[in-house]
Amino acid sequence: MTDGISALDIEEAGAVLAAESARFASFGWMRGTSGNLSVVLSRDPLRLAVTASGHDKGELTPADVVLVDGQGAAVQGGKPSAEAELHARVAALTGAGAVVHVHTVASVAMGHRHPGGIVFQDLEMLKGVGQPAHGVEVTLPVIANSQDMKELGDRLEAARDPRMPAVVVAGHGLYVWGGHPRQARHHTEVVEWLLELELTR
Predict the structure, then answer these.
(1) Residue 55 is assigned to a ligand binding site
(2) How far apart are CA 112 and CA 31, in angstroms?
(3) In what order do the strands lie in the sheet with 46-51?
(4) What is the spatial distance between Cα 72 and Cα 180, in angstroms, rounded to a whole number?
(5) 180 is annotated as contributing to ligand binding
(6) Which of 31, 34, 116, 195 could make an SS bond with 106 (beta carbons 3.0 to 4.6 A apart)?
(7) Can you say whether the dihedral through the CA atoms of 98, 102, 107, 111 is positive or negative?
(8) CA distance 162 to 8
Protein backbone atom coordinates (compact mmCIF):
# COMPACT_ATOMS: atom_id res chain seq x y z
CA MET A 1 0.00 0.00 0.00
CA THR A 2 1.44 3.38 -1.07
CA ASP A 3 -0.41 6.57 -0.07
CA GLY A 4 -3.55 4.49 0.30
CA ILE A 5 -3.14 3.03 -3.20
CA SER A 6 -2.98 -0.76 -3.32
CA ALA A 7 -1.16 -2.99 -5.78
CA LEU A 8 -4.59 -4.01 -7.06
CA ASP A 9 -5.49 -0.36 -7.71
CA ILE A 10 -2.32 0.02 -9.79
CA GLU A 11 -2.91 -3.24 -11.64
CA GLU A 12 -6.50 -2.26 -12.47
CA ALA A 13 -5.31 1.14 -13.72
CA GLY A 14 -2.66 -0.66 -15.75
CA ALA A 15 -5.30 -2.85 -17.38
CA VAL A 16 -7.31 0.22 -18.38
CA LEU A 17 -4.26 2.03 -19.75
CA ALA A 18 -3.12 -1.06 -21.65
CA ALA A 19 -6.53 -1.36 -23.32
CA GLU A 20 -6.65 2.34 -24.18
CA SER A 21 -3.08 2.24 -25.52
CA ALA A 22 -3.89 -0.74 -27.73
CA ARG A 23 -6.87 1.12 -29.14
CA PHE A 24 -4.86 4.24 -29.98
CA ALA A 25 -1.96 2.18 -31.32
CA SER A 26 -4.38 0.40 -33.67
CA PHE A 27 -5.23 3.80 -35.18
CA GLY A 28 -1.54 4.51 -35.81
CA TRP A 29 -1.49 7.27 -33.21
CA MET A 30 1.18 5.66 -30.98
CA ARG A 31 3.70 4.25 -33.41
CA GLY A 32 6.78 2.50 -32.07
CA THR A 33 7.04 3.39 -28.40
CA SER A 34 5.63 6.91 -28.83
CA GLY A 35 2.86 8.44 -26.75
CA ASN A 36 1.80 7.92 -23.16
CA LEU A 37 -1.35 7.74 -21.03
CA SER A 38 -2.17 8.30 -17.39
CA VAL A 39 -4.99 7.97 -14.90
CA VAL A 40 -5.29 9.74 -11.56
CA LEU A 41 -5.45 7.38 -8.59
CA SER A 42 -5.31 9.92 -5.77
CA ARG A 43 -5.79 13.68 -5.42
CA ASP A 44 -4.31 14.35 -2.01
CA PRO A 45 -1.51 13.64 -2.48
CA LEU A 46 -1.68 13.65 -6.28
CA ARG A 47 -0.74 10.23 -7.62
CA LEU A 48 -1.06 8.97 -11.19
CA ALA A 49 -0.54 5.66 -12.94
CA VAL A 50 1.46 6.42 -16.10
CA THR A 51 2.45 4.10 -18.91
CA ALA A 52 6.05 2.95 -18.55
CA SER A 53 8.76 4.34 -20.80
CA GLY A 54 10.12 2.46 -23.80
CA HIS A 55 7.26 0.01 -24.35
CA ASP A 56 5.34 -0.67 -27.55
CA LYS A 57 1.96 0.86 -26.77
CA GLY A 58 0.14 -1.81 -28.73
CA GLU A 59 1.55 -4.53 -26.48
CA LEU A 60 1.26 -3.14 -22.95
CA THR A 61 0.25 -5.38 -20.06
CA PRO A 62 -1.36 -4.29 -16.78
CA ALA A 63 2.13 -4.39 -15.23
CA ASP A 64 3.55 -1.79 -17.64
CA VAL A 65 2.66 1.24 -15.53
CA VAL A 66 4.46 3.36 -12.97
CA LEU A 67 2.95 5.17 -9.99
CA VAL A 68 4.16 8.80 -10.01
CA ASP A 69 3.74 11.81 -7.76
CA GLY A 70 2.64 15.36 -8.53
CA GLN A 71 6.03 16.13 -10.08
CA GLY A 72 6.00 13.05 -12.29
CA ALA A 73 8.65 11.22 -10.24
CA ALA A 74 8.31 7.47 -9.77
CA VAL A 75 6.85 6.41 -6.42
CA GLN A 76 6.48 2.75 -7.29
CA GLY A 77 7.37 0.69 -10.34
CA GLY A 78 9.93 1.19 -13.09
CA LYS A 79 10.73 4.16 -15.29
CA PRO A 80 7.79 6.41 -16.16
CA SER A 81 7.44 8.26 -19.42
CA ALA A 82 9.68 11.32 -19.64
CA GLU A 83 6.47 13.34 -19.93
CA ALA A 84 4.92 12.07 -16.69
CA GLU A 85 5.58 15.48 -15.12
CA LEU A 86 3.38 17.13 -17.75
CA HIS A 87 0.61 14.59 -17.16
CA ALA A 88 0.68 15.47 -13.47
CA ARG A 89 0.64 19.19 -14.28
CA VAL A 90 -2.39 18.78 -16.55
CA ALA A 91 -4.23 16.72 -13.91
CA ALA A 92 -3.53 19.33 -11.22
CA LEU A 93 -4.39 22.28 -13.49
CA THR A 94 -7.57 20.98 -15.09
CA GLY A 95 -8.91 18.51 -12.53
CA ALA A 96 -8.69 15.80 -15.18
CA GLY A 97 -8.86 12.17 -14.14
CA ALA A 98 -7.03 10.90 -17.23
CA VAL A 99 -4.59 12.33 -19.76
CA VAL A 100 -3.80 11.08 -23.27
CA HIS A 101 -0.75 11.97 -25.34
CA VAL A 102 -0.66 10.72 -28.92
CA HIS A 103 1.59 11.48 -31.89
CA THR A 104 -0.78 12.00 -34.81
CA VAL A 105 0.12 13.27 -38.24
CA ALA A 106 -2.85 15.64 -38.27
CA SER A 107 -1.90 17.33 -35.00
CA VAL A 108 1.68 17.95 -36.12
CA ALA A 109 0.66 19.11 -39.60
CA MET A 110 -2.07 21.44 -38.33
CA GLY A 111 0.18 22.80 -35.58
CA HIS A 112 2.67 23.73 -38.30
CA ARG A 113 -0.03 25.39 -40.42
CA HIS A 114 -1.61 27.29 -37.54
CA PRO A 115 1.00 28.05 -34.86
CA GLY A 116 -1.33 30.61 -33.27
CA GLY A 117 -4.08 28.05 -32.66
CA ILE A 118 -6.59 26.10 -34.71
CA VAL A 119 -10.11 27.55 -34.85
CA PHE A 120 -13.20 25.35 -35.20
CA GLN A 121 -16.80 26.43 -35.71
CA ASP A 122 -20.11 25.21 -37.12
CA LEU A 123 -19.28 21.54 -36.75
CA GLU A 124 -21.55 18.97 -35.14
CA MET A 125 -18.54 17.13 -33.70
CA LEU A 126 -17.82 20.06 -31.38
CA LYS A 127 -20.56 18.62 -29.18
CA GLY A 128 -18.09 15.84 -28.41
CA VAL A 129 -15.98 18.28 -26.39
CA GLY A 130 -19.00 19.92 -24.76
CA GLN A 131 -19.36 22.88 -27.12
CA PRO A 132 -22.30 24.03 -29.26
CA ALA A 133 -22.33 22.86 -32.86
CA HIS A 134 -23.08 26.38 -34.11
CA GLY A 135 -22.64 30.00 -33.16
CA VAL A 136 -19.28 29.88 -31.38
CA GLU A 137 -15.62 29.66 -32.33
CA VAL A 138 -13.49 27.27 -30.30
CA THR A 139 -9.70 27.42 -30.50
CA LEU A 140 -7.41 24.46 -30.02
CA PRO A 141 -4.21 26.05 -28.64
CA VAL A 142 -0.83 25.30 -30.19
CA ILE A 143 2.24 25.63 -27.98
CA ALA A 144 5.95 25.43 -28.77
CA ASN A 145 7.68 22.22 -27.83
CA SER A 146 10.30 21.90 -25.10
CA GLN A 147 12.24 19.04 -23.55
CA ASP A 148 11.83 20.80 -20.20
CA MET A 149 8.50 19.59 -18.81
CA LYS A 150 8.15 22.53 -16.44
CA GLU A 151 8.58 24.98 -19.30
CA LEU A 152 6.15 23.00 -21.45
CA GLY A 153 3.68 22.92 -18.58
CA ASP A 154 3.95 26.70 -18.17
CA ARG A 155 3.21 27.14 -21.86
CA LEU A 156 0.22 24.82 -21.64
CA GLU A 157 -1.13 26.65 -18.60
CA ALA A 158 -0.78 30.03 -20.31
CA ALA A 159 -2.36 28.92 -23.59
CA ARG A 160 -5.11 26.52 -22.62
CA ASP A 161 -8.75 27.33 -23.31
CA PRO A 162 -11.11 25.83 -20.69
CA ARG A 163 -13.60 25.15 -23.50
CA MET A 164 -11.17 22.81 -25.28
CA PRO A 165 -9.76 19.84 -23.30
CA ALA A 166 -6.67 19.60 -25.46
CA VAL A 167 -3.54 21.33 -26.77
CA VAL A 168 -1.26 20.67 -29.71
CA VAL A 169 2.46 20.66 -29.00
CA ALA A 170 4.13 21.91 -32.17
CA GLY A 171 6.19 19.33 -34.00
CA HIS A 172 5.27 16.75 -31.38
CA GLY A 173 1.65 15.73 -30.94
CA LEU A 174 -1.58 16.11 -29.05
CA TYR A 175 -2.40 16.24 -25.33
CA VAL A 176 -6.02 15.61 -24.38
CA TRP A 177 -7.75 15.04 -21.07
CA GLY A 178 -11.05 14.12 -19.49
CA GLY A 179 -12.72 13.30 -16.20
CA HIS A 180 -11.97 9.59 -16.61
CA PRO A 181 -10.23 7.37 -19.18
CA ARG A 182 -13.27 6.85 -21.38
CA GLN A 183 -14.01 10.57 -21.55
CA ALA A 184 -10.36 11.30 -22.31
CA ARG A 185 -10.56 8.71 -25.10
CA HIS A 186 -13.69 10.28 -26.54
CA HIS A 187 -12.18 13.76 -26.38
CA THR A 188 -9.05 12.48 -28.12
CA GLU A 189 -11.00 10.87 -30.93
CA VAL A 190 -13.18 13.95 -31.41
CA VAL A 191 -10.26 16.40 -31.44
CA GLU A 192 -8.32 14.20 -33.84
CA TRP A 193 -11.38 14.02 -36.13
CA LEU A 194 -11.57 17.82 -36.12
CA LEU A 195 -7.87 18.06 -36.96
CA GLU A 196 -8.15 15.52 -39.75
CA LEU A 197 -11.09 17.42 -41.22
CA GLU A 198 -9.20 20.71 -41.20
CA LEU A 199 -6.21 19.01 -42.76
CA THR A 200 -8.30 18.13 -45.83
CA ARG A 201 -9.47 21.71 -46.42
Answers:
(1) no
(2) 20
(3) 74-76, 65-68, 46-51, 36-43, 98-102, 173-178, 166-169, 142-143
(4) 19
(5) no
(6) 195
(7) positive
(8) 33
Helices (H), ranges, the chain: 7-26, 84-94, 105-113, 149-159, 181-199
Nearest C-alpha neighbor of 86 from the set 76, 96, 130: 96
Please state whether the predicted TM-score (pTM) of the whole model is above 0.70. yes
Residue-level pLDDT at 112: 97
C-alpha span between 139 and 121 (Å, rounded): 9
CB–CB of 177/94 below 8 Å? yes
Residue 162 neighbours by CB distance under 10 Å: 6
What is the model's pLDDT at position 105?
A: 97
Peptide bond before residue 165 is cis, with ω within 30 degrees of 0: no
- H runs (alpha helix) in 83-179: 84-94, 105-113, 149-159
